[in-house]
Amino acid sequence: MNPETPRPDPDVDSLVRAYLHEQEQTVDAQRILASVRARGGAVSDPNPQRLARISLASRVARASVRWGVAVAAACVLMIFAWNLHQVSVRADAVRLVRGAREALEPQTDRLYRIHIKLAQGAAERFPLLAALAPFDCRLWTRSDRFWIEAKQDNWAWTCGHDEQGRAWIAPTPETGLFFVPEEVPEPLSLALELCSFDLERVLDLLLTDFDTTVIRDDADSIAGVTRVRGTLRSNRPLRRFRSAEVEIDDKTKRVRRVVLARMHLGRAVAQMSFTFDQSGAQPEQAYRLSGHLDSGSIIYGPDQRLRRRRELLRFCGSLLMGQ
């Protein structure tokens, strides 16, 4: 379809003159003059046509003022109604998030499925996270600890963070690597941090540091589920995510899914979605390296840094090459 040919701007003066002339033809000047004389008004101008024009101009001016006042009042009412609607929407969002927060069972183990959608240019800055993206990843989390199982075809490995703050990787059931907090390699630390998830913390931040609103009637709406979107306020410190979308079950108040816009040093990294799968008590060993290794396996820690580094490089190389 060809674009429309732009129309020339109308001549406003000509339009007004034409309108006044048209109105002038409908005025009975003699009748107006007779009415004025009947009320005892002195008429200094004997030209009835001129009197008619003055009368018409006065009527048009008064009508214009009334129209302008009406439009201004309507605009004020629209702005007021919109602001009132926005306040109501925010209040609904806060109420929903608070309800979801209160419905959480404290210190409960929860399983989530992770989906990673990298931001443009993030693969070069976060190669381990990029290598992890194609895997089927499942995250078990409990407060300050978590562990992740990653599967792809016939390859599976695990990693996690235990109650002592140690990061660990089990590339195979026969080999394990662990790092105390102050020596975790940065690429590994960032990948683990970005894949970790604390639902309680996310809901608390939505109530304190984010502007929240309810999302209604869009293409992603699901029956029986309400979505709440939060955007970080400009006067709040930078967080590990700048926005969040939370899907809340209308009946149970349970959070079904959370999508976080992950950030690092003020730059976008990835959209990380965490979809709730199940909850249930996990043994303490599940959050520790030893719980993912066979009997008699080899563990490399701070006392074997050279061999641990060699094993880590071998694992990362295989991961980056997709083998």
Description:
Strands 7-8-9-10-11-1-2-3-4-5-6-12 form a 12-stranded mixed sheet. The chain has 8 helices and 12 strands. The protein is α+β, with helices and mostly antiparallel strands and 323 residues long. Helix 2 (29-38) packs across helix 3 and helix 3 packs antiparallel against helix 7. It has helices at residues 12-25, 29-38, 48-103, 122-125, 127-132, 186-195, 199-208, 305-321; strands spanning 110-118, 136-142, 145-152, 155-161, 167-172, 175-179, 210-215, 225-232, 241-249, 255-264, 267-279, 298-300. The protein folds into 2 domains: 14-103; 107-321, Lipoprotein localisation LolA/LolB/LppX (outer membrane lipoprotein receptor (LolB), chain A). The protein is 39% helix and 28% strand. The model is unreliable at 1-7 and 80-86 (pLDDT under 50). A hairpin with a 2-residue loop joins strand 5 (167-172) and strand 6 (175-179).
Topology (SSEs and partners):
Layout: H1 12-25, H2 29-38, H3 48-103, E1 110-118, H4 122-125, H5 127-132, E2 136-142, E3 145-152, E4 155-161, E5 167-172, E6 175-179, H6 186-195, H7 199-208, E7 210-215, E8 225-232, E9 241-249, E10 255-264, E11 267-279, E12 298-300, H8 305-321
Helix pairs in contact: 2-3, 3-7
